[in-house]
Amino acid sequence: MNDRKKRDWKLTVSFGLFMILFFVLIGRFAFIQVTGEVQGVDLQEWAKRQRTNYSELPASRGSIVDRNGMQLAQDITIYRLYAIVDEDYSPNPQTRINHVNDLEKTAKELAPIIGLEQSKVFSILQSAVEKDLFQVEFGREGSQLTREQKEEIEELGLPGIYFIEEAKRYYPNGIFASQVIGLAQANDDHQITGITGIEAQLDEYLSGEKGSISFQRDKYNTKLMNSNEVIVEAKDGYNVKLTIDQKIQTILEDAMSHVESIYQPERMTATVIDPKTGEILAMSNRPSYNPNDLGDVENWYNDIVSTPIEPGSTVKAFTIAAAIEEGLYNPDETFKSGSYKIDQIERPVTDWSQKWGSITYAEGFQRSSNVAMSKIVWDKLGPDRYLDYLRAFHFDQPTGIDLPREQAGTLLYRYPIEQLTTSFGQGSTMTPIQLVKAATALANDGKMMKPYVIKSITDPNTDEVILQKEPEVVGEPISKETADQVLQAMESVITSNVGTGRNIYNLGSYTVAGKTGTAQISGGATGYLEGRENYIFSFLGMAPSDDPKLIMYITVQKPKLSEQESGSAPVSYIFKHVMENGLHYLNIQPDKERESTVQKFEMPNWQEVSKDQLLTQLESYGIQPVIIGDGNQIVATNIESGKDVLSTQKLILMTDQPKMPDLTGWSVRTVNEFAQLADLDFEMIGSGFANQQSIPPKESIESGRYLFVEFSKDQ
């Protein structure tokens, strides 16, 4: 009886549970039918998605072009290979095979085209089949295929092999302005994204907006007759035009690469700017990189805007500009060169030579005297007033150039020693672009221009100009009269017989105003590195000198020099090569044909006077002769006694202990005259001005020795 009651109780409970479950299920079905949702998922939408084929329509990334519309960065089409290995993708294999049905044949024919071993391709396919995958890709080798590779594979007629069309960023000029243009690459989602330079700076403008296409399909991915197709058009990215000029930039890159291969410097920068507008026409760094083939990149940064340096003596142009503007600069006033000591500093400021004695401030600037600049700041301007000019030239702030990662230098100006060293470009730091910006005031009648690289941005979908840059005056630190006087002083650095730029930075067709720089590099035991190569050699040059159309600033850090070479050799090569060719390309009228004031003197009777007497007499005429050797007696000259000597003529005085001079910049005629005086077996090649010689400078020369000289018009 008890057993029966237990069975009845169990049946009752089981039936009750069943009924509860039944009503729950019925209720659930009813709820789903009424609401059309399961766990918040709309079943109709889910079914629609299952029947709908959706794909994105990629937007083309905007192009980057130079000022004349030449392509600098653009999208090119590449292809990604994939294989469908699922047999279900071939519903009618007797009619058509849509999947890879012969693994060995497919592997054998694909392998040589995509650059993979046959066994590797077979392994990829076989592994996909074993894992019951629908499709499989082939890694790096199967991506970024060219159109030629795609067509070659298509000609094989291999079932189950398909392609996805993609875009790749391509830079037609390789290393050209790499740190300016920057780099863009595809991310994990195969979306091209800017990483550095303009590509990163303007990524939101260049990227564009993807479109899409959707239609209903069957389970075999076949489009239905009534497919409800929806297309959303893609919007291509905006096109960016730069101020860079491809021709000038190419000339610059060639010169930089040449110097890099010969001198192997640690760092180099070069900038070419239009001083009237602030437009950057060329900008290059070394080390650089080829964005099409990266390899091991040593330097991603654009040092011109991102790396402050102690600029050295190029700052002296701005020091005398301040003094001239204040009416405190008398170029004919004399001072004692060599060293300068004030009570507030422990060690004196010194010049690079202690042999000049009492010289004028004009000569001090030409010789690049640190003492002259220190005295101007301390004795004439005063440190506070000089600081006002440094700020007026914006050395205390970034330029605002439209390039990423700009860093401003630092004015170290708290203590008297810092105030003195800043006057000649040591201690305080600045970026090359800060110095270039300040230099526009010297070349542009006192008006300082904001430098810029982006000229315009245009929407290719509508041809609407989104952004148009215009020249912007950002300061007027000096007057036109002061700027003209500074240019004259800078021109004398090139033309004066005592100028640090003489025979080095002359151009064949144009006059040059410039200032050389040799900056110490922080880091040595005494605060700076030591050794003849451990400097940043630089040059700030502009031409034509009376109304500059181009400014160029070059820095070369720690080049490997031969015993006979100075640090100006690699710098001058870049300047002369780029400036001369750049001005001709821009159709700037050469100005060396203009009339100049040439003075004429009678050559003294050098045989009847001592060497010192002769030099004193020639100096009174304003003539600085070239002295061959260290002897105390003059034994020959290229101009006979009593003959006329022009102030523009190179006068050669041969001593009784002749040594080889540096012939760089000498004309064919002058070198020939020297060879005759020294009785050398002279042979030459080329025309224009000397740039290479077989006998190193300062080496003793004997009668009859062979001398070979190469001449070039790039001067």
Structure description:
The termini are far apart. The chain has 20 helices and 33 strands. The chain has four domains: about 1-50; about 55-240, Alpha-Beta Complex (Penicillin-binding protein 2a (Domain 2)); about 245-585, DD-peptidase/beta-lactamase superfamily (Beta-lactamase); about 600-710, no CATH class. Residues about 595-600 have low confidence and may be disordered. By secondary structure, it is α+β, with helices and mostly antiparallel strands. Strands 4, 5, 6, 7, 12, 20 and 21 form a seven-stranded mixed beta sheet that branches. A five-stranded antiparallel beta sheet has the order 14-13-25-24-23, with helices on both faces. It has a three-stranded antiparallel beta sheet with strand order 3-10-11. Strand 13 and strand 14 form a beta hairpin.
